[in-house]
Amino acid sequence: MTHKTQIGIIGSGPAGLLLSQILYVHGIDSIILEKHTRSYVEGRIRAGILEQGTVNMLEEAQVAGRLKKEGLVHTGIGLQFNNTLHRIDLDSSNHGHSVTVYGQTEITKDLMEAHADRARDPIYEAADVQIDGIDSKKPSLSYTHNGEKHTVACQFVVGCDGYHGVSRKHFPTSLLKVYEKVYPFGWLGVLADVPPLSHELIYNNHGEGFALASQRSETRSRYYMQCDLTESVDQWSDDRFWDTLIHRFGAEIGNGIKTGPSLEKSIAPLRSFVAEPLRHKSLFIAGDAAHIVPPTGAKGLNLAASDIHYLSEGFIDYYANGNSLGLDRYSQRALNRVWKAIRFSWWFTHLTHRFPNSETSVLDRKLQIAELDYLVNSEAASASFAENYVGLPF
Ligand code: RFL
Ligand code: PHB
User: Residue 326 and which of 62, 305, 308, 370 are 20 to 30 A apart at CA?
Assistant: First the structure.
């Protein structure tokens, strides 16, 4: 069976869903192919912190109703080191700067509902997605669904298919440059229905490893701890997790942690990764398909949103005015912002984690503490941190 659309999108993560919804608001048709089921995609516990620019995008996409009611606005974060808790004001200049706590699961749900309301559900369980004809102005996607072969004829293809997707592989190796750094540790995350440790997030540099107290609501907490990459989730019973977490936050602060059964527990590896350029002929890539940051700076989902901002602007101008300049400039504009977030996430990861087996680890630790001390005591350094954490403009 052959379907027709303007933009064929691979992947129904935040990047694909947001792109499709914004295009719809501007009268442009698209079809999303997703290899997993709806409930699998909805259930992935990932990001939780939204920059204002991301919130604005969700408003533009007309899906911010619940976010405006349920999202928790934060104007500061806690930074703990040497057992002392400090606060960085995200809005010291009183410009209304903040971030919003609202889970990726909720954004996905809101976007999926908007798609269902306009009878344009992504095609879930689309197997063996292939891209053809990107050298031409008539590319197409093919896939198998319920054993039947389908084709989507379109004008452009956008790969929003994450780090392990197929779209990046369609760039010629002579064109695509890949930059990658893998960190020697992972993040062990736990979600639990217990009230958060504090009303703001706390990033904690502890000599035995990083820890982060985050949240999803006033009754649901999200905690992360740096862990060894050789460890598996089965080695982390709930009791071991809570004991280690409380130990890392120290007696005074850690004793405020409310414990309870974990709803989800997972280990994620940490990497910095950029593929460039983000366009080859009729094919574009966006979000995790093009770049990955370690989660320390809370930037991954927000970068997916800023990519979609630049790309949707390009499509809107192209279809409204026949002007392809925005599409031509997409890669360079998006990458310019991506590299700054890559830098910030890399820097904040280095400042807060224990790097195992480092020959100069004692010196490294002294340098971390000196820099953290500078960061929380210098107005200039705190303002620079805040500027990056709330998100550079786009
Ligand atoms: P996704 O979400 O990976 O979605 C890609 C989709 O493509 C589908 N797919 C395919 N479909 C069809 N055919 C194929 N061949 C396909 N291959 C793949 C997949 O099934 C999937 O549905 O990418 P997208 O849309 O670019 O979104 C990126 C974000 O999900 C990611 O950057 C964030 O979750 C990163 N992240 C965080 N970002 C933040 O901005 N703030 C945070 O606080 C934050 N915390 C986190 C995070 C990521 C984490 N992990 C687990 C990596 C915390 C963690 C622990
Ligand atoms: C989260 O709540 O999932 C979260 C918060 C802050 C981060 C990363 C993840 O830096």
Answer: 62
Q: Is residue 97 within 6 Å of ligand 1 at its C-beta?
A: no
Q: Which residues contact 230 (CB under 8 A, 6 or more apart)?
A: none
CATH number of the structural domain spanning residue 305: 3.50.50.60
Task: Check if 152 has its Cβ closer than 6 Å to any atom of ligand 1.
Answer: no
- The owner of tokens 């960190």 is 183
Angle, helices 14-25/300-321, rounded to nearest 10 degrees: 30
Supply φ then ψ for residue 135, to 5 degrees.
-75, -15
Whether residues 167 and 191 share a domain: the answer is: no
Same domain, 110 and 174: yes
Catalytic hit among 299, 309, 310, 353: 299
Residue 122 annotated in active site: no
pLDDT score, position 313 = 98
Number of domains in the chain: 2
**Confidence label for 356 from pLDDT (cuts 50, 70 and 90):** confident
What predicted TM-score, i.e. pTM, was given to this entire model? 0.97
